[in-house]
Amino acid sequence: MGFIKFVKEELQVIKERDPAIKTNMEVFLYPSFKAIISYRIAHKFYMKKHYFLARWISQRAVRKTGIEIHPGAKIGKGLFIDHGSGVIIGETAILGDNITLYQGVTLGGTGKESGKRHPTLKDNVMVSAGAKVIGSFTVGENSKIGAGSVVIHPVPPNSTVVGVPGRVVRRDDQKLPRNTMDQVHLPDPISYELCRLQSDNVRLKNKLKTMDDKLASMSEDIKRINHISLGNENNNYQNER
Ligand SMILES: CC(C)(COP(=O)(O)OP(=O)(O)OC[C@H]1O[C@@H](n2cnc3c(N)ncnc32)[C@H](O)[C@@H]1OP(=O)(O)O)[C@@H](O)C(=O)NCCC(=O)NCCS
Fold this sequence. Notes:
Elements (H helix, E strand, L loop, with lengths): L2 H15 L13 H17 L3 H15 L1 E3 L4 E2 L4 E2 L5 E3 L4 E2 L4 E2 L4 E3 L11 E2 L4 E2 L4 E3 L3 E2 L4 E2 L4 E2 L7 E4 L4 E5 L2 E2 L13 H52 L1
Parallel strand pairs: 1-4, 2-5, 3-6, 4-7, 5-8, 6-9, 7-10, 8-11, 9-12, 10-13, 12-14
Antiparallel strand pairs: 14-15, 15-16
Helix pairs in contact: 2-3
Bound molecules: coenzyme A.
């Protein structure tokens, strides 16, 4: 593909997916634009087994954009990486057409697999800010991964996945019933522990207050007894005199 055609296509992609762009010239400032150009060149060298050169180009792009696309990754048309910083695309990742990635996305491996280690994203997948998709599985077409999710299992097409670990909350535009997969009311061990400590604290405070009250009333009683016995002693003394 010629450079002019590439720029036109990128411009179209960015205009479609980033409402923040105002003028055509801005396309040259997008980290996504720079990173994808570098990737396309690096990928050609990688395919010709010029691995060092390919990595050199991709690492240079990392320093300039904060986006690390391994030259071995296979990427279709219309990839858009919004903001960009912190995006990592692993060597054996396969991306279909019209994928959108936001900042902080990792398409990585679990560290336990060899060979194909990274995910495959089918056409029109969107991976939101900070999401981690790790492992060699497929995310079906038109699916969305929510911000901050950690996806470790295959995702069916037309689904929305959120949470850690990622679970499907919507499929074919239908919300999935909560009783089968409650994302929000998962047991939270930290808040459970805090609640337990809080109730212990209240119980101990009440116990301490009861003991304090008892001590106060006992010291009142002792004072009263002392007072009475002192009075008696005085009377006896006066009587003796
Ligand atoms: C996932 C997302 C794409 C919405 O997809 P959607 O298919 O329209 O899903 P919905 O908004 O109907 O949400 C479905 C459920 O998931 C929950 N949910 C949505 N996003 C979530 C997230 N990131 N984490 C946890 N839960 C989330 C919703 O609260 C909703 O729960 P409910 O059924 O109890 O109401 C969106 O929430 C998201 O994460 N966008 C981030 C985009 C981004 O990265 N922007 C950065 C720009 S700089």
